[in-house]
Backbone:
DNA sequence: GGCCAACTAGATAGATCGCTCTAGCGGTAG
DNA sequence: CTACCGCTAGAGCGATCTATCTAGTTGGCC
């Protein structure tokens, strides 16, 4: 199946390096030269694995990072004793990561989403698909907890909105004040929704 | 005082064009050539008015756009009969603008803030100052309405967080779903804070 | 061994980037 | 009128960007 045992190694190194660079410097702010340098990959390999160039690489990174981030967050939620503290853990965990990485590692696709929203339709579509998958994933959990469909979806959107919005303020100010406030609000509205359906 | 009656005209045209381009395509995504083209200004004028180049222009645009946006939002709030409906008007107004501009005109500095947070310290500082001025401006209003200092600041941060977060989702998805949900949540938490202090 | 496909490796093209430079225009002052 | 100054005007610089192109290497299969 794998003609070359090293096959896929270079490709995934490129994807990893690209994901990190995009998260920190954005799509237009990241050069292909820098990507192959960080990935320890030759320039030619990039266009071998991604014939569509930077845009194809971008689409793949968006989907991959989006899926990984969803998995990460769901893991945190599942590890918590209840949904409310699970949500709280997500926000405090995000704050911790932010502090530990000098306020660089926040949402892997937020910066790209804003950059390409009005300039690159394929990439915009990819970011929209990722956000929608997060909304669907989160609202499925709420539905399982007894929240009705509409409320669950609105709740999921609010959590993502709070997280993304807080990331902007935190990265700009180099504090975690907004994430802490957002975590409180998130816990409050989730608690209210769960109590509302438990009646 | 003004040796040339046209003085300042070109400069403000450059600033206006830059503000719009930065809002839509970001800092790195906007070229100086495109700026002077959109501003109908000669290239030389750009470096005459902004000797510091793109970075100096960026700092000035961030502060200018930040102040204008604060004024705009405060105007909407002041026109409303009460704080809660004022907040609601802000979110629905933002949604309307977004739809009218093909999901291009959202927050004038959000995209820049994320782009430069880890790559350009002077610009990052400028975005942080703007956000802080918004927080201070909004919390002053809440303080005037009887909310205590700490609650007012947290409330202001949450409103900005909700607005910025919703902008990300709305521009990516080309819908105003997130802004509508965020507007509801914003109205709810403002109402709760006002009721809390009115007791 | 010989062969093919997958992959690595990097030089290089063509366009665009931010930025610098000099020349010229128009109004004011002496 | 001449001298000066704020500003306009755009050609052009070196650097960097994305993308292409050719050559070399590797490993499995007949």
Residues:
């Amino acid at each position: 199946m794998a003609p070359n045992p090293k096959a896929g190694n270079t490709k995934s190194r490129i994807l990893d390096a690209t994901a990190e660079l995009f998260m920190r410097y954005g799509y237009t702010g990241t050069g292909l030269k820098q990507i192959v340098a960080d990935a320890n990959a030759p320039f030619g390999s990039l266009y071998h694995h991604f014939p569509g160039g930077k845009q194809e690489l971008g689409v793949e990174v968006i989907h991959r990072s989006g899926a990984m981030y969803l998995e990460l967050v769901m893991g945190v939620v599942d590890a918590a004793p209840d949904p409310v503290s699970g949500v709280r853990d997500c926000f405090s965990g995000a704050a911790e990561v932010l502090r530990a990485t000098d306020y660089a590692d926040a949402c892997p696709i937020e910066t790209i989403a804003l950059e390409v929203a009005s300039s690159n339709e394929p990439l915009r579509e990819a970011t929209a698909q990722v956000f929608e998958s997060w909304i669907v994933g989160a609202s499925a959990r709420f539905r399982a907890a007894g929240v009705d469909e509409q409320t669950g979806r609105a709740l999921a959107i609010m959590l993502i909105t709070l997280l993304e919005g807080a990331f902007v303020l935190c990265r700009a100010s180099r504090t975690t004040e907004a994430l802490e406030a957002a975590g409180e609000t998130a816990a409050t509205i989730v608690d209210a929704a769960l109590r509302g359906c438990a009646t």
